[in-house]
Amino acid sequence: MPQENLALIVAAMVFVIACLLVLSVALYWRHRETRKRIMEKIRQDGLELSGVEAEPAVQEITGAKRGPIVSFFDRVGKRMKTEKPSELRAQQLRFLRAGIRMENAPAVFMGAKCLGGLGLAFGFLLLKTVFFSLMSARLTAVAACATALVGFYLPDLWLRLKTSRRRKQLRRGLPDALDLMVVCVEAGMGIDSATYRVSEEMKLTNAPMSDELKYLNLELRAGKARRDALRNLALRTDLEDVNSLTTLLIQTDKFGTSVAQALRVHSDSFRTKRHQMAEELAAKLPVKLVLPLILFIFPSLFVVIMGPAMIRAFRTFMK
Question: Which stretches make up the Type II secretion system protein GspF domain (predicted)?
C-alpha cells in the first residue's frame, strides 16, 4: 500500500474516532442534564406536596452560569461582543427563543465561536504537519480558513437547531395548555392564577411551555402590565399560534369580554386548524413516497419477481 494512502486512512480513522468521542460525550452530558432536571422537578413537587415552599427557579433569568470552561469563554467573549444596544437586544432575543436565559450567554457564545474557529484551524494544521506534509501552502491556507469558518459558525448552527427543537416542543404543547387554561378559567380562576396552574401541571409533560407560562406569571407578579407580559410571551416563543392567543387575550382584557368564552372559541378553532394541518400532511404523503418507491421499492420488487424467470431463461439459452 502506498504511503499516501496509508496516511489518508490513518487520518480518516483519527477523524472518525474523534467524532465518535465527541458524540459520546455530548450524549452522556445530555442524558445527565435530563436526569438532573427530572430529579429536580420531582424534588420540587415533593416539597410542594409536603407543605414546604420550593425555591422558585428564577435564577436562570438574571444569574450567570459559571464553570472553568464557561468562565474562559466568558472572558474571551467579553472582548469580542458588540456594545450596540440594538444588537445586544437581538442577541438576547435569540437566546430567549432558544430557552437560554443566562446573563453571560452572549459573551460565552461569542467566546465559543472565536475559540472554536481557532481550535479547528489549529487542529487542521496539526494534522497537516503529521499526515499531510506534502500539501501545498496555498491549499493549506484555504483549508485552514475553511475549517476556521466552520468552527466559527458551528455555534450558530447549534443555536438554530436548539431554537427549532424548542419551537416544535412549544407548538406540540400549546393545545394541551390551551385546553387546561379553558378548564381553569371556566372553573372560576383568573387568567393569572390559570396560567400559573397550567405551568405547574405541564412541568413534567412539556418543560418549555411550562417555563414560558411561568415567566409570564412572574412578569405579572412583578407588576408588569398584562398586555406587555403577553406581548413578551409572543416575542419569546416566535409562534403564530401563540401570537394569535396573546392578541385574543389582550383584546379580551381591553374590551372586558368573557375570557372563558373567548378561550373556548379559540380552542375550537385551533383544534380545527390542527385537523386541517393533519389532512394537509396526509395529502402530501403520496407525493413524498414517489421517490422512495422508484429508487428503492420498485427495483427490489423487480428483482424478486423477474429475477428467477431471468435466471431460468439465461440457463435455457446457455444450454
Answer: 178-306
Cα gap 112→100, rounded to integer Å = 15
User: What phi-psi label fits residue 63: left (phi over 0), alpha (psi between -120 and 50 degrees) or beta?
Assistant: beta
Task: Give the separation between CA 151 and CA 248, rounded to whole angstroms.
Answer: 44
Residues with Cβ within 8 Å of 27's Cβ and at least 6 positions away in sequence, in order, are: none
Do residues 209 and 178 make contact, with C-beta atoms less than 8 angstroms apart?
A: no
Q: Is there a contact between 113 and 74 (Cβ–Cβ < 8 Å)?
A: no
By C-alpha distance, which of 164, 181, 143, 144 is closest to 259?
181
Q: Using CA atoms, how far apart are residues 111 and 74, in angstroms rounded to an integer? A: 6
Q: Which of 212, 202, 220 has its CA nearest to residue 243?
A: 212
Burial of residue 308, with CB atoms counted within 10 A of its CB: 0-12 exposed, 13-18 middle, 19 or more buried? exposed
* Amino acid present at 301: L
How many CB atoms within 10 Å of residue 202?
Answer: 21
Over residues 232-274, the pLDDT tens digits come to: 998 888 888 889 888 888 888 888 888 888 888 888 888 888 8
Rounded to two decimals, the pTM is: 0.67
d(C-alpha 19, C-alpha 212), whole Å: 35
CB-CB contact of 99 with 236 (8 Å): no
For the chain, the domains span 169-275
CA 167 to chain centre: 7
- The amino acid present at 187, given as its one-letter code, is A
Q: Which DSSP string corresponds to 20-33?
A: HHHHHHHHHHHHHH
User: Residues 75, 111: contact at Cβ < 8 Å?
Assistant: yes
Radius of gyration of the chain (CA): 28
Query: Is the separation of the CB atoms in 65 and 104 below 8 Å?
Result: yes
Are 199 and 41 within 8 A, CB to CB? no
